[in-house]
Amino acid sequence: REVDKNKVWTKRAVPSGGGRQPYETYLLVNRVDELEQGVYRYLPIEHKLILVTENLPNADDLMEKAWYQNFIGKSAVVFVWAAIPYKTEWRYSFISYKDILIEAGHICQNLYLACEGIGAGTCAIAAYEQKAMDELIQVDGENEMTVYVSPVGKINLR
After folding, report:
1. pLDDT in tens, 108-155
2. 83: left (phi over 0), alpha (psi -120 to 50) or beta
3. Which among 32, 33, 31, 12 is positioned nearest to 23, based on CA atoms?
4. Is the confidence at residue 104, as pLDDT, over 80?
5. Is residue 2 included in any domain, yes or no?
6. Is the pLDDT reported for residue 18 higher than 80?
7. Which of 5, 72, 74, 109 could bond 66 through an S-S bridge, CB–CB 3.0 to 4.6 Å?
8. How many CB atoms are closer than 10 A to CB 157?
């Protein structure tokens, strides 16, 4: 299909109903070479990370926000996906939430595949304190809200 050369758009590695791409990706960086600790947002058009805040909670506080799933506090980085429902709602109305939630699975599955490729591990988490996670990535919880969280770290094979 043709795309107007003046429009900015991105090709992504996951399908999105109507090409709406309602997700933003945030990273809680704890121990990553060449990145300072903090909360980052991924900008897909520029293919870069921007620092949202240097205020990253300590491991215990992060575990509390994730209902005491201790591996989240030990991870090198935590991927947080936030949805902006309006990006899909204006086109798909009442069925938009179904598409938005299905897309979360597509996105996170790609992280599982990437982790496998580098010998790391991840675990998709949907159990977390909603308001606390939204505040951590600095979204309002209404127009944009956390939907899925996935810590990444080395696999401890015993």
Report:
1. 999 999 999 999 999 999 999 999 999 999 999 999 999 999 999 998
2. beta
3. 12
4. yes
5. no
6. no
7. 72
8. 6
Helix (H, G, I), strand (E, B) or coil at 18: helix
Residues 6+ apart with CB under 8 A from 21: 10, 12, 87
CA gap 85, 142 in Å, rounded: 9
Distance CA 82, CA 56 (A): 17
Say which residues have a Cβ less than 8 Å from residue 128's Cβ, sequence separation at least 6: 65, 66, 67, 146, 149
Show the tokens assigned to 8. 């900015």
- 15 in a domain, yes or no? no
Residue 77 C-alpha from the chain's centroid = 11
Asked if pLDDT for residue 3 goes beyond 50, the answer is: no
Compute the distance between CA of residue 156 and CA of residue 139 in angstroms, rounded to an integer: 33
Count of domains for the chain: 1
User: How is residue 128 written in tokens?
Assistant: 């977390």
Place of tokens 């299909």: 1
Which residue range is the domain that position 87 belongs to?
21-154
CATH of the domain at 83: 3.40.109.10
